[in-house]
Amino acid sequence: MISTEKQNELREKFNPEGSLLRRQQLRMLDILKEIDRICKKYDIPYWLSSGTLIGAARHGGFIPWDDDLDIEMMRKDYNRLMKVLPNELPETMALQNHETDPTYFFYYAKIRDRRSIMAEGNNYDRLWKEKGIYIDIFPLEHQPIGLHKVTEKTVGHMYKVWRTSTDDQKAIKKVMHIFHLNRLFIFPILRLLCALSFTKTITSGMGIPYHNPRYEKDIFPLSTLSFEGIDFPVPCNYDHMLRLMYGNYMQFPPEESISTHCAHLEFL
């Protein structure tokens, strides 16, 4: 972890107390605490991931310029969580997946804050019902990396149609056609092939455009790290897992390469 002096310097530069970004981070932390409560209640294992995990390991909290928060869990646990969340979340938060937001076409869920409105730079969210601050919940599956890349290609056209749309009503029909074709036919067939392959490689769920490999021995049994002063679950060998995915994750990126997801944010 970096020194307190360096951390304070970065905080002052990127996310000082009271800044819009810091308020967004604290709202995401509120969502994470609620998810943690629910997962503990139902004995559902999950862990901090991606930049959130780097933040825990390197900064003891958010990467100062980070404006998203990610967690992961295995597919079977993800399915269980999706069933209990609608009845467990407070009224200030909403589960966002295709079942709760019909034009939502990602293959992973978000938990949204209902006391804010944000717009992302990619404009994918323009027809979605829920648009508040969120955290991402990613399901993971055992699958060969090559096969997962096939599933990425099956959704690539869907993203292109939406990204280049000049008529959103026509485009959303095409997007949802591809979405359902994948979810109901293509992905189940590919999951059967994965089961027959006995692969030990774990990666993001089918249709999710991230294919960095993980391994059970690096994830389980879960450990904990302090994140913003609270202990949250992390992979037991998070250092090895992060180095496989990102190389020297303790090194800061060049400032000119730093970008954020959020294009506009309002607190209600």
What would the keywords be for this entry?
268 residues; alpha+beta; Beta Polymerase, domain 2; two-stranded antiparallel sheet; 10 strands; globular
Give an overview in words.
The chain has 268 residues and is α+β, with helices and mostly antiparallel strands. It has a single domain, classed as 2-Layer Sandwich (Beta Polymerase, domain 2). 44% of the residues lie in helices and 18% in strands. The strands form 3 sheets. Strands 1, 2, 3, 4, 6 and 7 form a 6-stranded mixed sheet that branches. A hairpin with a 2-residue loop joins strand 8 and strand 9. The protein starts with a helix and ends with a strand.
- Helical amount among residues, as a percent range? 40-55%
Helix-strand string: HHEHEHEEEEHHEHEEHE
How many angstroms does the end-to-end distance come to? 35 Å
Q: Per CATH, which architecture?
A: 2-Layer Sandwich
The total tally of domains equals 1
Overall average residue pLDDT: 93
Q: What oligomeric state is this?
A: single chain
Task: Output the CATH class name.
Answer: Alpha Beta
Are there runs of 5+ residues with pLDDT below 50, and where? none
Beta-sheet strand percentage?
15-25%
What composes the largest sheet?
6 strands, mixed
